[in-house]
Amino acid sequence: MSDPLSHYCQQQNENTITYTSSTGKFITIKKKEQQGISNPDNNIISNSSFWKNGSNYGIDINTLMDNINKKKEEKQKQHDHNRSTTNKNSTDKNNTNKGTLWAEKWRPSLFLDLVGNEKNNRKILKWLRHWAPLVFQEDLPKNFFTNSIVNTSNKDVDIKEDLEKDILQRPAKKILLIYGSPGIGKTTVAHVLSKQAGFTPREINASDERAGTKLKDKLTNTLFNASVDKNDSPVCLICDEIDGSIENGIIKNLIDILNKDIVATKELGHSVVVSATDNVAKNKLKSKTKALRSKILTRPIIIICNNLYSKPLEKLRSYCEIIHFHKPNEKELLTRLELICKTEKINASKKTLMKLIEICQSDIRNCINNLQFLSNNNSTQGAGLITLDVDINNNEDNNQNIEKDVPLPWYQLVQLIFQKNPKIDGSIIFLTLLNKLELQSFSTIDRIISGCFNNYSIVKYSDIGSVNKPSALSNWLYFYDLLQGKIYSTNGGTEFEVLRYAYVIPLVFHELFADVTNFRNNHAIDFQFGNKFSSLELRNKISNLRNIVDLIKKNLTPCDLYIYYNSNSQIFINELLPYVNILLNTDYLKTITDSNLRNKVVSENIIPLIHINIPVLKFIVNGKNEQFLDVSPPIYKIVEFGTEENNYGNVNMMLKRNICYKYLLSKLEEYKINNKRKRSYENEKNTSGSVTNTNNSNKKVKKSNIVNNDNIVNHNISSTSPSSTNTGSFTSIAPTLDNNTDKRGKSKPTNAFEFFKMKTVVPLSDKDVRNGADGIVTIANDMNKNKKEGLKVEEDRVWVKYKEGFSNAVRKKVTWKTLFE
Amino acid sequence: MSLWVDKYRPSTLAELSHNEHVTNILKSLSENNPNDLPHLLLYGPNGSGKKTRTMCLLNSIFDSSVYRLKIDVRQFQVNSRKLELNVVSSPHHVEITPSDLGGSYDRVVIQELLKEIGQTEQVEFGSNISNTANNNSNSNKSPRFKVVIINDANSLSLDAQAALRRTMEKYSKNIRLFMLCDSLSSIISPIKSRVLLLRIPAPTNQEIVSILDSICFKQQVNIENKDNSCLLKIASFANGNLRLALLTLESMAMANNLTLKDTTSVIRPDWQVVLMKMSNKIIKERNVKCLIECRSMLYELLAHCIPADVILHDLTMFIISALANPTIIIGVVKNASIFDERLALGSKVIYHLEGFIANVMCEMEK
């Protein structure tokens, strides 16, 4: 508890101690004799040898306490004296009391007056003291860094690490940032501690101009110019309320200063011998050019804000030593308030004060303000000793008067809206709700309304089940929708004032759906605040589907298809895709008994569908090695309902489809092979020269190889994902079923094998690599011995068709050799 | 060509099947000096063949190279925002869908793209492309303009339409506009006065049936009953939308072993099935529980990119078709119109759709 004092105290030698008083003066005190405890108060700490050890930067807390107590006594005496001598004066004093806010009057001016945040206070003081070597040319105590306090906490160790020395023995981070909720004494702490550490606080707050050159001058003046008066102590800059500055001029300036400082320090660091003692460093510093010195930051800066994460602070944050100020402990607050009450002659019980603290949410400034307000109220009634208790207790029921205006979370409000307290008059509930709603921002109102909308079916209300109320509600929701449209309208936000009408809509919900039963079993109601039905969720889903549609549209290779359907994607979604989906559910194939007819249907209707690239058939292998026919892009996601829960979409349907899919696959293979043959003939005819597609690694091809269990068709279907670009390299998975390495396969050119990096050769496979819309590389390879096809063995030739855009402008003959060179 | 609707799509004016008088107008336009061709605005319901006719017309004015298309992605810079628009183009025409951009950005596209096209004079294609030389010798002269097709013209913003006005006159030497839209109501009158308005009516049920019949014949689809009642069923379901009719026909034929019986049920898209279920629900149970169930269905429909006005329209139709009492029907229609307006003015569609359902329920309670 007594450690903090020692931060600013220094042990000069065994017998004397210097400490810096609150006004910045240095006071040298003789050490007391160990046994000579003159003041009985000093008994608190009996082991004074503890202090002698210098474990605590050398200050005798006892001496300090003595001094303070003496001063207090003197003051008290004077006070009493004044009171007793002049009764008239006392009334005058009351008047003067009214003139100043108590919050100001009772602002702590001494370290001991500070309430709460002890650890943080110490941290700040330590940080400030860290500037001492530079500013006061003092040596830090040896144990400043090797913190040997008996009850060393982890935090202290952290501080030690944080406060690393730089060449000028400044803290590593040159700015101290204090943040915390309002009214807990951040500004006060900064002022008190800077005074305590021997600085003169110089404050820049939101009331000052914080932009332009004026500010810059002010900053440089305070930070870099030495005071004329020798007696003045060095300045400590306190930038208060920094997050309030919209024009972040001050932050920009600070960052500028810091950056310059870093550069200058580096320069300095190069020239100064690292091992130099402080004095040497100082001498060297003096010998430095003025320009360099004027850039080095030699004064501490403290920044105070409420919200650490406000946007203007973003850049500055990394430069700062950040200290979070917590709300003071209620007990500490209570003692402080009791002291105030005692001196201001207010009769307040502990309970009342606790209540006050609770109402003000530990905001000490607010507490004192309220205290003053309440005491004034009573004093006008002529009471000498003010009794607060009645006042606050009276306010218990409707304490909105002094209740701190803090918006409730929106979901709590939603619950409140559906409640009706039977004990309270309806109009009062209405008013309370309105008050609470008016504290909310518009976005929260929106959330409240959608929350009400999602939940009104869950709660109980009179006339339940009938649709009259929802239908009445619809008119109000329309009204709200119009309001929102006005507020977000692009033609300037001039109609923002209509926002106030938006508060009415939650009240409509209250009017229509609030009921006593909801009040009684509020906990039984299972409110839904999830985002299942939120507009955001909806928008995400829609945009997902739109992306799929765009993907499909992009991949429509035959342009004439594109022109008929691009006019409106709605036609695509509403008319075309549902039917394409139905056609692709090849389920119906098994109903066609005539095999010729089936062949015809597949080759004329389904394969072209696949071929035109609206969908690309793809195979999914699930864990059990089962295969499904899947459609990619997933059209079913757009047109089918009730499949969202299932990750694989319609696995059931695919299971059904499974029966025909082998058949379909064989047809697909056949079609492809025919196509390839056709193409290869075309290519043979085409005798044009060299290959444009030089780098095979430019082709990224995603492959998925599936082996048919039936061994009827052994296929190896590859398809590129449309989004893949022309980078990467071929990857290939060797079909698993193939266990006999075919001799014929080995007769293939070895480059080809290296290229595919395959261990085995697939005798019956053909590789069709289709690269989206960008270009088509087809590698027809080894497609003989197919039972159905009965094709002749072709030479091991690779035909590469390179297609750029949609024109067949470049079609060149390529062999493996040229391709892989 | 894969889908029947594309497979049997006419590609020349001579092949066009329904609405002979419109076809005749188009024929006369293409046979006269093509340089006299006016700006065109084709309007008519969805699936009545506006685009098909436009392409046929282009085919007859130029040659079949209008079907040789490529798709470019054009980028436009608007206030530091980059916009992308797919532009389909052939040697003779450019096709844009400004409504893809959304908002009022279409004005920029109209201004930049049209000016760019309008300021470049077309070169003689006949001299460059050998295979078109024959065609050119047949026609009196290859037209010196490029055609710009604007899809979905009724969703052009007022700014964009205003931007069109002067462009249409100024660059008329090099440019012809073919605008396609569903309804004329949102086209400003200065535009209307500058174009030749051509209404493409939807084919009648009889016309649709005859088209379906011919395709069934070509595709060897058996129709059991010769009075075509099944085809008629499809036609009445399609309601003049030939594309829808053909898609339905194909999927029905596929799903039923290429034979159509009288009893074969019409295949509807899933979203319509959901709407039908919903309308039945609304009529049967009129309480809040049902309303909430409808709400989740509505959410799902919306999440599947079905626009709110389509939902409202089809739902109303389904409800009306199931109702008998004329006063209730009037009430439902009245509500539908009220909420259609609200949908157009507001942005929170789910509130209005649910409000519509609630109001309809109230109407039926009376």
From TrEMBL, chain A:
GO terms (BP aspect): DNA replication
Domain of life: Eukaryota
Ranges of biased composition (kind: Basic and acidic residues): 72-83
SMART domains: AAA (SM00382)
GO CC annotation: nucleus
Region listing for Disordered, in residue ranges: 72-99, 679-698, 713-746
Alphabetic keyword roster: ATP-binding, DNA replication, Nucleotide-binding
GO molecular function, one term: ATP binding
Pfam families: AAA
Domain annotation AAA+ ATPase: ranges: 172-329
InterPro entries hit by this protein: AAA+_ATPase, ATPase_AAA_core, P-loop_NTPase, RFC_lid
Amino acid composition bias (Low complexity), ranges on this chain: 85-99, 686-698, 713-732
Entries under Gene3D superfamilies matching the protein: 1.10.8.60, P-loop containing nucleotide triphosphate hydrolases
Protein name: AAA+ ATPase domain-containing protein
From TrEMBL, chain B:
Pfam families recorded: DNA_pol3_delta2 (PF13177), RCF1-5-like_lid (PF21960), RFC_C (PF22534)
Record domain AAA+ ATPase: where: 36-202
The keyword Magnesium belongs to this UniProt entry's keyword annotation: no
Tree of life domain: Eukaryota
One Gene Ontology term from the biological process aspect of the record: DNA repair
GO cellular component: Ctf18 RFC-like complex; DNA replication factor C complex; Elg1 RFC-like complex; Rad17 RFC-like complex
Keywords: DNA replication
GO molecular function: DNA binding; DNA clamp loader activity
Protein name: Probable Replication factor C subunit 5
Record organism: Saccharomycodes ludwigii
